[in-house]
Write a sequence for this structure.
């Protein structure tokens, strides 16, 4: 499938205030700065759709996007990254609660996408997040983001490593070129 149009719908602090929809939803999870918001912009070929930043912690709410395609429309939920130290303990705990509620109860949630920055090893909080998804039977797959930073050979090695640890499908991605977009969209189409 190809994307025809992408629109920002809403920023919501919690599940209750999220617009209800029947459309398949994919939620982006991962450490702060892993490239989640940039992924949306590259996928939709619109640099100003999702807010991105060099400073981790840019995304603070559940940001919902509706994507029209040549196949079926779908939704993307851009979620705040974890591991952002500057957020206060109280704020972290509140967000943790809201995030868990969203992930456990969002009826149209089709799959989570966990983002791993290709430059770094899988971190402790990545393992914890993944374990939590598995324990709660939340379907998920992994995107190896920022692949432009490593060689082709390293990309293959990283993919194999993540597959081994997470036992999920792993798709490579880079926002520096559109080469990986089709692979991701074809994968989405299969899940929808
Ligand atoms: N080289 C390169 N840089 C990238 C890529 N994707 C994202 N970046 C950069 O990484 C930084 C963080 O990207 P974001 O998309 O804002 O990260 P995020 O995961 O949404 O971060 P939070 O909102 O804090 O959770 C930005 O400076 C992006 O330009 C990529 O594929 N390649
Ligand atoms: Mg973001």
């Amino acid at each position: 499938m190809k994307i025809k149009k992408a629109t920002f719908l809403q920023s919501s602090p919690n599940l209750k205030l999220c617009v209800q929809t029947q459309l398949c939803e994919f939620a982006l999870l991962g450490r702060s700065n892993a490239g989640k918001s940039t992924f949306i912009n590259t996928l939709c070929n619109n640099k100003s759709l999702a807010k991105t930043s060099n400073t981790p912690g840019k995304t603070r709410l559940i940001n919902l996007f509706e994507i029209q395609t040549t196949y079926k429309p779908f939704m993307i939920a851009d979620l705040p990254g974890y591991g952002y130290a500057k957020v206060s303990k109280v704020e972290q705990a509140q967000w943790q609660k809201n995030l868990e509620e969203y992930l456990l109860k969002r009826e149209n949630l089709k799959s989570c996408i966990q983002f791993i920055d290709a430059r770094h090893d899988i971190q402790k909080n990545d393992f914890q997040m993944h374990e939590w998804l598995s324990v709660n039977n939340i379907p998920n797959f992994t995107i190896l983001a920022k692949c432009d930073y490593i060689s082709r050979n390293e990309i293959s090695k990283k993919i194999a490593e993540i597959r081994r640890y997470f036992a999920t499908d792993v798709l490579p991605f880079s926002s520096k070129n559109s080469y990986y977009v089709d692979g991701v969209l074809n994968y989405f189409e299969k899940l929808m």
In short: The pocket of magnesium ion (ligand 2) is lined by residues 36-37, 58-59, 78 (CB under 6 Å). The radius of gyration is 15 Å.
